[in-house]
Design brief:
Layout: E1 14-19, E2 25-29, E3 38-41, H1 45-49, H2 51-59, E4 63-67, H3 84-92, E5 98-101, H4 107-115, E6 121-124, H5 131-134, H6 138-148, E7 152-156, H7 166-174, E8 177-179, H8 181-195, E9 201-205, H9 210-223, E10 226-229, H10 231-240, H11 258-274, E11 279-283, E12 291-295, E13 297-298, E14 302-306, E15 315-318, E16 333-337, H12 339-349, E17 354-358, H13 371-385, E18 389-393, H14 395-404, E19 412-414, H15 418-424, H16 430-436
Parallel strand pairs: 1-4, 1-7, 4-6, 5-6, 7-8, 9-10, 9-17, 10-13, 17-18, 18-19
Antiparallel strand pairs: 2-3, 11-12, 14-15, 14-16
Helix pairs in contact: 6-7, 7-16, 9-11, 9-15, 10-11, 12-13, 13-14
């Protein structure tokens, strides 16, 4: 078990809290890459998940120092990835007593931290501006502790706990450590689902971050009874199976990242080969009530395509015949699952007892390619109402649910994507492991 921060005597204690404020930002003035560019928080779900812990500490007169990453800064300072917009959101939209420091270590941090009074908080700059964060550098960890003056560490970033980074693992090793309320809740929900899995267990996989998910998908595919695939992952699986995908995104840039494309294709092929002969029986509704055999890995049978993600003109493409992969690629991309696939997926989800969903079925930000994701959300919500356990992970899936107004109709919605998938696949997350110690 891991402990929550209901620790005694936290008044005046300086507490370092690892949150996940890796939220999408929207450019509202200036140009990206320019120091005068103005960014605002576009989606606050991950911020909301940390509020119970932050408010608890502030209400109990602790001195709170918040740390987070944002985007992939790769060890370099980047104005477009500053946490300043998040600090403004916390102060202006949530009325939290939070000040911002434009660094995460150094003299500025030390001076601001010394002046911090009980019941107030500091948000430090993006951790990933320093290369020591991602390599779990001991000196960087010590500097974070020294400059912040931290006496206690709380991990409230379940969605970052699958990374053995300095702010996740390094700090937990060197300070008295606790789990935030949301992190503890996440672990308990997923543990409960894994202890006694109700079957059939259906995994719904989508999204664009294929390289981050395919390896985890290998483990989860073995655990699941059926895997329904959409989004960029479906494009990779279709191509791996010899089906034409034209110029669809498959997880990496084919010209700039040929090695990454090769890696993704190899993993996709391994998954298809491993489960090629497995079949799942579903009772076909109707007068004869026959058993309908389906492959374990279910790929789209039709898609909506267009030249790009902003297109208004779409084309339905059937993938059941005459679509062998050739060198004659048309200038189109597969951007959503088609109506026949939606019907098939809805039919399968009706039979589910446990559903794990990660990633949208298409480019849902464009209304022309949002139907697949919306219909999957509705189908999972209906299954939940009939008694199925539904676990949703990832920021994009959360956005789909928010847009459909179904937030209260799922068993558990996690802000974590990769961390949730790894946890469900049986891996012990480095950040959670340290807290258990």
């Amino acid at each position: 078990m891991i402990n929550c921060p209901k620790i005694k005597d936290i008044r005046n204690k300086k507490i370092l809290v690892r949150v996940d404020f890796n939220v999408p930002l929207k450019l509202v003035a200036g140009k990206a890459g320019n120091k005068n560019a103005v960014w605002r928080v576009a989606d606050s779900d991950r911020i909301s998940s940390a509020l119970e812990t932050i408010n608890f500490l502030i209400d109990h007169k602790a001195k709170v120092v918040l740390i987070s990453h944002l985007g992939r800064a790769e060890g370099k300072k980047n104005h477009d990835l500053s946490l300043l917009p998040v600090a403004k959101f916390l102060k202006n939209n949530l009325d939290l007593p939070v000040e911002f420091v434009d660094d995460c270590v150094g003299l500025k941090v030390a001076e601001k931290s010394k002046k911090l009074v009980s019941g107030q908080a500091l948000l430090l700059e993006n951790l990933r501006f320093y290369p020591g964060e991602e390599v779990n550098d001991l000196n960087f960890t010590k500097q974070l502790i020294k400059d912040s003056g931290a006496e206690i560490f709380i991990n409230e970033a379940f969605s970052a706990s699958h990374r053995a980074h300095a702010s996740v693992v390094g700090l937990a090793k060197r300070l008295p450590s606790y789990a935030g309320f949301n992190l503890k809740r996440e672990v308990e929900h997923f543990n409960k689902a894994l202890e006694n899995i109700k079957r059939p267990l259906i995994l719904v996989m989508g999204g664009a971050k294929i390289s981050d998910k395919v390896a985890t998908m290998q483990n989860l595919s073995r655990l699941a009874d059926v895997v329904l695939v959409g989004g960029g992952i479906a494009n990779a699986m279709l191509r791996a199976g010899g089906i034409e995908t034209h110029r669809s995104f498959i997880g990496a840039n084919e010209e700039k990242e040929p090695d990454e494309v090769k890696k993704i294709m190899n993993m996709a092929k391994e998954i298809l080969v491993e489960h090629a002969t497995e079949r799942v029986l579903f009772e076909e509704l109707g007068k004869d009530r026959k058993n309908l055999p389906l492959p374990k890995i279910v790929l789209p049978i039709d898609v909506l395509a267009a030249k790009n993600a902003k297109a208004t003109k779409t084309e339905k493409i059937t993938l059941l015949s005459d679509v062998a992969d050739t060198d004659n690629d048309r200038d189109i991309k597969y951007l959503d699952i088609g109506p026949e696939t939606i019907r098939l997926y809805r039919y399968i989800l009706k039979e589910a007892k446990t559903i794990v969903w990660n990633g949208p079925m298409g480019v849902f930000e464009n209304p022309n390619f949002a139907r697949g994701s919306r219909e999957i959300a509705r189908a999972i919500a209906r299954a939940t109402q009939k008694g199925a356990i539904s676990l949703v992970g990832g920021g994009e899936s959360n956005s789909v649910i928010n847009r459909t107004g179904l937030h209260e109709q799922f068993t558990h919605i996690s802000t974590a994507g990769g961390a949730a998938l790894e946890f469900l696949s049986g891996k012990e997350l480095p950040g959670v492991k340290e807290l258990k110690k």
